[in-house]
């Protein structure tokens, strides 16, 4: 008799919660930290929805022991967080001094994680470019300088932390850096052609140039890691990309094409280049000469420069041909089906609905196309009204529990029924935190943060996820080959 289907997670599956430095640390002028582009940007009037900035955030730079205690209480296997470049090299550049206090801080935190049996999963860049590099030479717009400076920063981190850190992400969501920072201008450094928004910038060229430079910087850092550190440190390294599932609005051929075009612009831009060694032909068709290209030598470094597929995903969009949003490949997004029904429950964030089938479809699409193990490094939901109700109600986050019920089961089906190789899952986020242009209004945490007291309150979604992973975790056995059933 065959054994019953084992609906457990693969043996070394990593799970934990995710955060990013600027969204939680605060203490922006402590211990010789330099400024990042988000410091000034978030202080400008009108850049965040509530007019608040990252100076305090969840105060995690000071309260790191509390965060650690929380992670321990939650029983996570891993924790995904990011390092602030401006704490490590305050002025950012390769000839600028390294800040021992910054290194010491992250050393303490990494050691604290390891002492508690929690595997550090480290992002090198989650959007907080040192301001000095932006002022000095235009930051991500300056290929020769930024590629060298980023690679140097990465190297400093491999040297300082790589004896203990075995999981590295080079860049978080380059699409957001390029499109939101240099196209729409809603994220730092806030460049855009829209002169009401920004005194300078060119939305039709800069995003594509910035994305191009980010890919190259990522690839060079990976090359350094593989050549100089991996042989002894034996870790894994890759990039993580945002990207939501794209579904045709209906089954007309132009809308079926539109969904693929949306994927090309949102995902293929980075994933085809990094994993397959080319830019999506449709991007060149739309952008023409504005789409840069790599030299054959550069492609050699770029192609295959990620050990895995790093996936940040939140929702699904219904796609229709047309519309003039070039950043979406001239594809129109909606959540409203032809029959006027909604795709799923609406989050607090306008861009997010709960549709777990899309997550499963995306996992399949990505695995088929890129043939790499998938690490889900972000997935999460903001709940309508959560910031306007008392704490004891806010922690009953049913809509978020519903979301995670759906996505965890969708992931399990993708693993067991579809054979997709998923190796990690990090819900976003450990804490409510500084939600970029939304300020503190939008909450993504599985832990509620009272921003007056900085007290942390576990929400029901944290409890749900902890239980779910307990139930589905495969406990390694001493005797690996133990039979699961005996044929009689
Ligand atoms: C993640 O990005 C970030 O990595 C994380 O820092 C953040 O806190 C989290 O999401 C929650 O937002 O309507 O054109 O402005 C998620 C990817 C891509 C989702 C851009 C929102 C809005 C597009 N994001 N998208 S637009």
From TrEMBL:
E.C. numbers: 3.2.1.21
Catalytic activity: Hydrolysis of terminal, non-reducing beta-D-glucosyl residues with release of beta-D-glucose
InterPro entries: GH (IPR017853), GH_1_N_CS (IPR033132), Glyco_hydro_1 (IPR001360), Glyco_hydro_1_AS (IPR018120)
Uppermost EC category: hydrolase
Family: Belongs to the glycosyl hydrolase 1 family.
Cited function: Plays an important role in cellulose degradation. Shows hydrolytic activity against several glycosidic compounds.
Name of the protein in its database record: beta-glucosidase
